[in-house]
Please model this.
Amino acid sequence: MAAPLDDRALVAAAQGGDRSALDHLFRRHYDRVYAVCRRITGNDADAADAAQEAMIAMVRGLARFDGRASFGTWAYRIATNASLDELRRRRRRPLVAGRDRDDEGPSHEVADPDSGVRIEQLGDRYLIDAALAALPEDFRIPVVLRDVGDLDYAEIAAVLDVPIGTVKSRIARGRGLLAATISRADGNRDALADRPTSAPTDSP
Amino acid sequence: MNDDDLTSLHELASSHLDGDNSPDARADVAATAQLQAMVAAFQSVRTQLADVPPAPIAAREAALAAALAVFDEQQVAPAACAADLEPAASAPVISLASRRRWPSRVMGVAAAVAVLGVVGLGITQLGGKSDSSSSADSAAKTQMDAVGGGDVQVESAAESVPAMAPPSTIGSINSAGSVATVINTPADLAALPSPAANDADPAAGVPASNIDQRTASSHGAAVACLSDTQVYLADIFYDGMFGIAARDTVTGVTSAIADDCTVLVSAAP
Model:
């Protein structure tokens, strides 16, 4: 069985017009690109849009990709920019009353034995989304690139065009703020869980 | 504990999590309960962050299809241009951003129509005064004059109409005073005139008129993207975005380039 081609070989083939190489390369990276977009934009719909824009931008810029950085670093840089563009567009869009598409959780019309676990997971999802949304972009993006994109400090510095020391300090600060926000929210949730949900019926 | 102390503890814990600490720093973390708690909290944050809900399959396939369609267009376009055919045999791909940019595109077209109207009025008023027997100006001069403005612009535009209509222009929102040529199709891009050869600066290998325009361009970031073989042609407005047009002097391919170095579209000669 042939060994899978590495990114460099796939990029070279795609630059030479090999469609299947591009398809293979993009399928390999789509999930991570989407994950970065998801964490920067904060919701599924904008993340899907941003990821698509990023893929199209990658095709358009592929001829100029010179391989000095890894394809992943280059791809996440584009995904980051696409996500920021998406956020800017979102700010310009009028707010629509009602629930966001992403707010539509699983239906619970039928009793689901795992519903408790699912609700808990949904709660955690919202918690991290809310904590990230509250984090300034300067901290959010390096943390996302590190913990979701798995880029190292130097790669993040290249993406953001800031010194490595700045990257380290922003990641540390961002993690500190996220941890504090989540800890506070968990404390509140625990406090709510400990509180009786209704007055005892047998109370006088 | 003040903020500075907390910040340095955060940095120590964060670097520890990333495996970036020195042996001494690792020993410090191992010996300090507070730092260990911070590392655990940061690890928890990392786990939650990485737990991204999977991308919907439909979204993934749509994104890949859209990207591959753009790739196909790029592969087809050079051959189609060479054969002087209409490009894009496949269905055109409209990016999400383009779809949302329709108001700015409408504004762009409206502005271009207004500019053409003003030029047309000038032609009507000055038509009798111009020397209609002079038709030697090239399309390149028409373009250069359009950037320069003034009476020459009107005269050149009037003279070149039978050969090639002058491109529409639009003022950049971001840079008052600069004029961008409106590009609607790859053919418009390919039709942009090259700099006049007799303006060449032998020392730089770049036409002197281009050096002036590089300086004049309001898209210095895009100009900086050019390779050694590419020459700047004009500031342009394409697909709702401002950028520059540049031509490769080796291949003759003309590209529309955005400020972030993205090639928006290319056209073969």
Observations:
- DSSP finds eight helices and no strands in chain A.
- Chain A touches chain B through 55 residues (CB under 8 Å).
- The two ends of chain A are 77 Å apart (CA to CA).
